[in-house]
Specification:
Its EC number is 3.6.4.13. The structure is a single chain. By secondary structure, this protein is α/β, with parallel strands linked by helices. The protein contains 29 helices and 24 strands. The protein has an 8-stranded mixed beta sheet with strand order 7-6-8-5-9-10-4-11, with helices on both faces. The protein has a 7-stranded mixed beta sheet with strand order 3-12-19-16-13-15-14, sandwiched between helices. A hairpin with a 4-residue loop joins strand 17 and strand 18. Helix 12 crosses helix 13 (312-329), helix 18 crosses helix 19 and helix 22 packs across helix 26. Bound molecules: cytidine-5'-diphosphate and magnesium ion.
Length: 735
């Protein structure tokens, strides 16, 4: 079993196998390849053999994140903490000595910006202080927003434990498709997107006494929109308290935006962190991560490790590789507990990362950006940072949105490093060169509002009666073209009329907590009498890319199982097929296991489906089934996604309107078939612009579902009529 599969394949055969290369390409970002290749000219030897079969990566120590002059005594160790009362732990947090001062400042000012190091207790403590101070009297509620669902869930669970109440009673959380609150819930942790939706039912947030916009530095689209709306509400609700909490940096911006609101700083405690860089760039950062973790495990004193990767697939792959190597090394190394954490991880698994490490063992938490500032895991001494994150990017010229693995910003890299210095002096290993850090990383991350499509948010704002979007109070305005395109798309979907006013159909679309295109698809299922099937497709699309399970040692079986679900027509029908068969099995976990389907994802799809079904009445769609006539299902999908269409040309797939080159993802059931016309659910940019979840369509359907958007002429098929050879030749000659 070679340690570096890809390299070895190259050495042996000159080129990696086609199949393997496809998987590798799909997995590794183009950015990573570029990033890795940056100063490949360097002659430094890349690896050195130290452990018998494992290779090592050489790091050089470069800089140090300064700690405090005299670091305060470290907080009690995790084990001791367990024994101490939870109240003592609360009192040990950096925010605690400032409790009275903070409450006084909140009483004195309507808007307060709160800045404090990650882990100082902002998220878990401040809402509790407000609760203790009586801000929830007379049934008033406190909202605390989080950009990430995992954070909302885990923080609410923690606070419920601290308050000694059952989660969902006094303390609860509310995230999309999952509401863990009740009438009694006065401390509401929620995603920023959920608070945005609250405006729909309660435009002045009248039942809230305090709104805390947490993790403001993340600058997610929803947080940014909240700023504008809350600032407005605060003007005519002088008794509403607004708190804006942020890890570091940029608090001046928030202060200025909120009419020079005061900034309250919670001094953090921080130990120095030594920063190490690789001598040479790493081409495969996933592999490099695995090697480095083992290296840390074997060479470094006790202390847990935190690894930053970009998403679920990567994290699962890394965990699997790590476990695999540990098994092979057996008793040669001490016990290594490998724990993943990412957005879709079920809550019982999430809780495991907070459990104390058993004596003698070492814990490795493999996380997404979530662990950068949203979650604090005790006991981390080592941070491993490959320097990437998954980011949405949007091209307002073409209207194409894609998820891309990109180098993170310097600000991000330093936040990550900071995670190593919370309990003691720590070390951060960066899997890139010091040169790359200096010259290639952006200072800060561009706010999401400037790199995403705005269809969703524009629809929401329109539903709130905000018509003049150009003059909305944005902290940073989105590009003009992006706004315009959102309006145009909503018009094409029939959500807005030609005056830019919300239509009846638009009002219904806003009712569903999903993207406008998905909403439109659900609405269209009424016309095509297939809402049962469309609900399933919508639910399965919402769980996204984590349906099939592909363990390394059973790749062939897993792929066969997947192919067995294929239905002519494309991936949406495959998803429908998987769900239907699972439902027929009585929603069995055994069935999932046998068919290499992720039970957890399916369970979630079932939840989402139920929620959407519950909303059908509100949008006046009745339950109906296509009775096996999948054309109807495909047409309903087309009615929502006619914007995302591509056709096969001589030079591969091109998007219909923008003529962008795109590719079918190798995972797709249509990868081999290459139908002439198709629609895709989303684009993912890795090595290429891949279409994920594709469906074969007929061009005539586009005229049927979107006659205002497509003209018959542009849907004419150049392949249908043979091009005169002469012209072809002349063109070539000219070329
Ligand atoms: O928001 P901020 O980063 O300032 O800190 P926090 O999230 O309120 O965390 C305060 C403390 O609570 C930290 O010591 C965390 O380790 C702990 N915590 C926890 O044990 N479990 C959670 N789910 C969240 C926080
Ligand atoms: Mg926090």
């Amino acid at each position: 079993q070679p340690a570096r599969a890809v390299d070895l394949v190259e050495e042996e055969s000159g080129a990696p196998g086609e199949e393997q290369r496809r998987w590798e390409e799909a997995r590794l970002g183009a950015a990573s390849l570029k990033f890795g290749a940056r100063d490949a000219a360097s002659q430094e030897p890349k690896y050195q053999l130290v452990l018998e079969e494992e290779e090592t990566i050489e790091f050089v120590r470069a800089t140090q994140l300064q700690g405090d002059e005299e670091p305060a005594a470290p907080p009690p160790s995790t084990q001791a903490q367990q024994k101490e009362s939870i109240q003592a732990v609360r009192r040990s947090l950096p925010v605690f000595p400032f409790r009275e001062e903070l409450l006084a400042a909140i009483a004195d000012h309507q808007v307060l910006i709160i800045e404090g190091e990650t882990g100082s207790g902002k998220t878990t403590q401040i809402p509790q202080y407000l609760f203790e101070e009586g801000y929830t009297k007379k049934g008033m509620k406190i909202a605390c927003t989080q950009p990430r669902r995992v954070a909302a869930m885990s923080v609410a669970a923690r606070v419920a434990r601290e308050m000694g109440v059952k989660l969902g009673n006094e303390v609860g959380y509310s995230i999309r498709f999952e509401d863990c609150t009740s009438e009694r819930t006065v401390l509401r942790y929620m995603t920023d997107g959920m608070l945005l939706r609250e405006f729909l039912s309660e435009p002045d947030l009248a039942s809230y006494s305090v709104v805390m916009v947490d993790e403001a530095h993340e600058r997610t689209l929803h947080t940014d929109i909240l700023f504008g709306l809350i600032k407005d509400v605060a003007r005519f609700r002088p008794e509403l308290k607004v708190l804006v909490a942020s890890a570091t940096l940029d608090t001046a911006r928030f202060s200025t935006f909120f009419d020079d609101a005061p900034v309250f700083r919670i001094p953090g405690r921080r130990f120095p962190v030594d920063i190490f860089y690789t001598k040479a760039p790493e081409a495969d950062y996933l592999e490099a991560c695995v090697v480095s973790v083992l290296q840390i495990h074997v060479t470094q004193p006790p202390g847990d490790v935190l690894v930053f990767l970009t998403g679920q697939e990567e994290i699962e792959a890394a965990c699997e590789m790590l476990q695999d190597r540990c098994r092979r090394l057996g008793s040669k190394i001490r016990e290594l507990l490998v724990l993943p954490i990412y957005a879709n991880l079920p809550s019982d698994m999430q809780a495991r990362i907070f459990q104390p490490t058993p004596p003698g063992a070492r814990k490795v938490v493999v996380a997404t950006n979530i662990a950068e500032t949203s979650l604090t895991i005790e006991g981390i001494i080592y941070v491993l940072d490959p320097g990437f994150c998954k980011q949405k990017s949007y091209n307002p010229r073409t209207g194409m949105e894609s998820l891309t693995v990109t180098p993170c910003s310097k600000a991000s890299a330093n936040q990550r490093a900071g995670r190593a210095g919370r309990v003691a002096a720590g070390k951060c290993f960066r899997l890139y060169t010091a040169w790359a850090y200096q010259h290639e990383l952006e200072e800060t991350t561009v706010p999401e509002i400037q790199r995403t499509s705005l269809g969703n948010v524009v629809l929401l704002l329109k539903s709130l009666g905000i018509h003049d979007l150009m003059h909305f109070d944005f902290l940073d305005p989105p590009p003009y073209e992006t706004l315009l395109l959102a309006l145009e798309q909503l018009y094409a979907l029939g959500a807005l009329n030609h005056l830019g006013e919300l239509t009846t159909s638009g009002r219904k679309m806003a009712e569903l907590p999903v993207d406008p295109m998905l909403s439109k698809m659900v609405l269209a299922s009424e016309k095509y009498s297939c809402s049962e099937e469309i609900l399933t497709v919508a639910a399965m699309l919402s769980v996204n890319n984590s349906i099939f399970y592909r363990p390394k040692d059973k790749v062939v079986h897993a792929d066969n199982a997947r192919v067995n679900f294929f239905l002519p027509g494309g991936d949406h029908l495959v998803l429908l097929n998987v769900y239907t068969q699972w439902a027929e099995s009585g929603y069995s976990s055994q069935w999932c296991y046998e068919n290499f389907v992720q039970f957890r994802s399916m369970r979630r799809a079932r939840d989402v489906r139920e929620q959407l079904e519950g909303l059908l009445e509100r949008v006046e769609v009745g339950l109906s089934s296509c009775q096996g006539d999948y054309i109807r299902v495909r047409k309903a999908i087309t009615a929502g996604y006619f914007y995302h269409t591509a056709r096969l040309t001589r030079s591969g797939y091109r998007t219909v309107k923008q003529q962008q080159t795109v590719f079918i993802h190798p995972n797709s059931s249509l990868f081999e078939e290459q139908p002439r016309w198709l629609l895709y659910h989303e684009l993912v940019l890795t090595t290429k612009e891949f279409m994920r979840q594709v469906l074969e369509i007929e061009s005539s359907w586009l005229l049927e579902v979107a006659p205002h958007y497509y003209k018959a002429k542009e849907l004419e098929d150049p392949h249908a009529k043979k091009m005169p050879k002469k012209i072809g030749k002349t063109r070539e000659e000219l070329g």
